[in-house]
Amino acid sequence: MNVYVVDDDAELRESLASYLGGCGYAVQMFASGAAFLSVAEDLTPGCIVLDLRMPDLDGLALQRALCEMQSGHQIVLLSGYGEVQQAVRAIRAGAIDFLTKPCPPEQVLGAVEHARANLAQVRQREDAKILLKRLTEREQAILHASAGGKASKQVAHELSLSIRTIEAHRSRIIHKLGAQNFAGALLIAQGCDS
Amino acid sequence: MLWRWIYVSQSMIGAETADAVVARILKGSAVNNAALGVTGALVMGRGRFAQFLEGSEESILHLKGRISVDRRHAQATTIEFGGGYQARQFADWSLAYAGPSNFFAQILGRVQLGQSQQKPSVRDDILMVFSEFAATPQPGSEAPTPAKGAHRTPRASDEARELRN
After folding, report:
1. Span A134-193: which CATH code?
2. Which regions of chain B are under pLDDT 50?
């Protein structure tokens, strides 16, 4: 995962970037919120380690701008002060965490790792959505009706179809979704709903 | 006049079953609180709960009694308890936050469980968190539009500040 360190304090920016780089992340540094925003859309969704207080565009304003453009970036905010209001607002708006400087680098790493897990989940959900679009309406209805592992007989009854038809659709669903079996197909559908 | 009870406690829920237990707590509380006319919010962070409850004296006392003996948590420590409030802070009851953030872990972690008095700054931070949750709309929901000329509802943290002054 890419990590973008956005902080106007050069010393802190470089020390964070070097620490996170040492932990195996690809790190890019930005000296201002505006500098990041100008290329935000072109960057692979990753984790932004973002200073709250910066002269041109502060952390919360950048977070709002990124939310509006649905950038997909995860955000970890850093602040010199324990600003409870801003912290709750930032987390409420989707930030992973709000850390008060100086914070141990392991705390930043912990938050970055949560961001990575979140991104992986988002990606899985998006992949599932793309896969499900391959199904016809009827196949989607059968998959939906089968949620919770319902037997073919019950689904057939609910949809007023024959068991044979349900079974035939189920094997097509498994094939189209690239699943091992029908339980796997149900998991993909479930991942999309969560 | 409304009553409030705000407390912080230690979770006794095992990590392996946490999701299922939390889902059960949320479902039960939402139904139960709505029936009692109780509004508020629950915050869950790294082994601790914080909850803000507001409603009639009878329902808050009833809930306090029930919650205090709930074995899924321990050392429910009162941050604020009493009546005389004119307005609600929350429109409904919901889970405001559940997650691994350091921020909430620290705020809740500073509460000295089992103690009747907390440092004013610790208490203020908890009240401020709930005020902010009450003021910020849930993600994805419509922003509340206050009536024209309406005054800002006093928040718990304002009161905390007034009490100290």
Report:
1. 1.10.10.10
2. 140-165
